User: What shape does this take?
Amino acid sequence: MTIRLIAGLGNPGNEYAHSRHNMGVDVLNMIADKYGISIRPDSKYNGEIGRGMIEGQEVRLVFPTTYMNKSGDCIGPLANFFKIKPEEILVIHDELDIPPGVAKFKLGGGPGGHNGLKSIIACLGNCQNFHRLRIGIGKPATRAEMINFVLGKPPKAEAELIEQAQKAALDSIGVLFTQNIAKATNQLNGFKAVR
Assistant: This one.
């Protein structure tokens, strides 16, 4: 199994930069920097797209610029055009059910209330069989606070924990491409940030 497309989810625009909901695109940019892949706007696919090599394997990086709840409008047509199967896709996104300082790989499953994942599943022909790299952001105290919580920036202590998890996630990408998803999963899923 080879990952041919890595998507980092988030919302476009400076007001959303480094918000909790943009953790996916933050990690995507870290991958692009580490492996020298430039990501540029591509209006044909409603996203910012780059193509390059990770550990000797060709891969496409994409940030859908459609806003989160329409992420599939970018990823679906891109995967279709380049004949990329769902199981060759890795989607990096924020995850409410994981605390800050933790990141985990997962294959398949429902959207779990994440509108970006919901859109991708729909645009891949109702297929859930793609890989996810989930960056924990924790949950607000009440549901009423949810929108402001995900669109807001984490406080300094939380941001530091998330940054550690993002760096661990970046390291695991190298393991994924040099070894396999199982080894990368074992390494990352056992990681916990230190306060």
About this structure: The beta strands are 5-8, 40-42, 47-54, 57-64, 89-95, 103-107, 131-136. The helical segments are 23-35, 72-81, 115-123, 146-151, 156-178, 181-189. Residues 104 and 189 are 5 Å apart (CA to CA). The longest strand covers residues 47-54.
